[in-house]
Amino acid sequence: MVETTLLMTRPRVSGERFVADLPAVLRERLTVCHSPLLRIVPIAEQIDLDDARGLIFTSANGVAIAADVTDRRNLPCYCVGAWTTQTARKLGWQARMVGEDAAELIATLRANPPQGPLLHLRGRHGSGDIAGELAPVGCSVVVQVIYEQEVLPLTDAAQATLNGPGQVIVPLFSPRTAQQFARVAQIGAEVHAVAISEAAARPLRDLPLKRLIVASRPTAAALADGVEILANQASRVEGGPSAK
């Protein structure tokens, strides 16, 4: 039977959490190779919360870094995604999930604008102009970049896997990660990819992939479903033309 490797490009802790959440029967079928393509680097020495009436978090990274900089927890938090929301609650904030991605957060807050100003604590690179989209409905948002997302090369082990005799499944969790993968990956093996969004899929479309699919929702759970779909396809089909 051809070996199938799951190539994880998330930061290591997040990648391990994703793998641990996969169904046990699926984990048993996959060999895991971790090769993070992003490194999260905190850059905020302080956060000014004096005027803020609430916080916006679009990633768990932002939550964790903010928690290291301020001990103030008496502000409501509007979060993207279940994991970000759960992380904020564990760290003591009054957090609620208002969307699975930035677009859903914007739509929710436009429909029922909270009293601002809100402070959006985020990374240097991200999708969606939350402050600009909420301004027309009278919700003021101040943006503070509190971490960098530095790109990394693939490890030697990951590159060898992409040129090996087996099959490889690569989940891509962001457009930036997908762009970096497209830049550095040298593909010789049968590689199947699942992208978290169409924006993340776009940089991958010129790669010699066996299959490329887009997750049904912009969530880790939907990416996990995509991994399972590709694993099932990989176990049934060997050879044949590329499908995109």
Describe the structure.
The protein has 244 residues and is an alpha/beta fold. Helices cover 35% and strands 24% of the residues. It has 10 helices and 11 strands. It has helices at residues 12-21, 24-27, 60-69, 82-90, 102-111, 130-134, 156-162, 175-184, 198-201, 220-236; strands at 4-8, 31-34, 38-42, 54-57, 76-79, 94-97, 118-123, 141-151, 167-172, 190-195, 211-214. The chain has a 6-stranded mixed β-sheet with strand order 3-8-7-4-5-6. Strands 2-1-9-10-11 form a 5-stranded parallel β-sheet, with helices on both faces. Helix 3 runs parallel beside helix 4 (82-90). The two termini are 24 Å apart. Mean pLDDT is 92; it is low at 239-244.
Offer a concise description of the structure.
With 244 residues, the chain is an alpha/beta fold. It has ten helices and eleven strands.
Distance between the termini: 24 Å
Give the strand line-up of the largest sheet.
Answer: 3-8-7-4-5-6
Unreliable stretches, pLDDT < 50, 5 or more residues?
239-244
Q: On the 0-100 scale, what is the average pLDDT?
A: 92
What is the percent of helical residues?
A: 25-40%
Q: Summarize the helix and strand pattern as letters.
A: EHHEEEHEHEHEHEHEHEHEH
**Rough outline:** elongated
Helical element count? 10
Rg calculated over all Cα atoms: 19 Å
Strand content: 15-25%
Structural class: alpha/beta
Count the E strands. 11
- Outline the biggest β-sheet: 6 strands, mixed
